[in-house]
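[Meeting: bench + compute handoff]

Bench side (C.D.) handed over the final construct sequence. Compute side (W.E.) agreed to return the predicted structure before the next meeting so the bench team could plan truncations. Sequence as handed over:
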Amino acid sequence: MLKTDRPNLLAKLPPTEYCNQLKDLYFQSIAPVGFLTPDIIRVKSNKKKLFPILHSPTFHERYRQFSKDPDQASLAWIALLFTILGTAVLALENDSPLLKNLSRKPTPWDRVTELSERYYTAAMKCLEADRYLWRHNVSTLQALLNLIYGIHHSHGQTWTLLGLVYHLALSIGCHVDPATFSLDIVEAEERRRCWLGLITLLCNQNMAITGLDIYQSVFSSRVLPPAVVWDEDIIQG
């Protein structure tokens, strides 16, 4: 990757104030902090949401570090941030001042479409610059899962991309319980969340397309479910 590429990618982020608002909206409306079971996400509002694939305290800390020094963040993590922004846009109300401040399109629908496409495209450019097809990690997987969720809920086509992400997850061993590896508690938890989130998306979309339930055949691995605790109770060390 050329050194000049990173500034160009970072320049695609919205102003810090708006970036903060969209990031917070994502965790409040799209993937709120909650405690998890394999079949349902139980959150404080008692509503079903996007399966939370992130450990929110860890993300907020990395975002704080990123705000101080953007150059230290990996391209995969920056891609994740862009997908969070693009997905958060989908939760904005039609009369949100953010929509008018970030887009000049004439209608709320056009503004949401423009902004989500802008941030998702930037996310893919980050992943391409990072050569994600050859090297990938949990941040890569999280970014792509967020991207799939957002596109799918905007009635876009994601089946092919979902197949790619499934095989990327296999390549980094997400189908194996992380207790097998020497990982800290947060990374182990995020791997379990990513795997269950991926399988949920895969099974739901397969059911919608083919009418066949492949849950048992795909979810035959021995990965334990995510912990049934609040994010704040998962602490490194």
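W.E. noted at the follow-up: The chain has a mean pLDDT of 84. C.D. will use this when planning the next construct.
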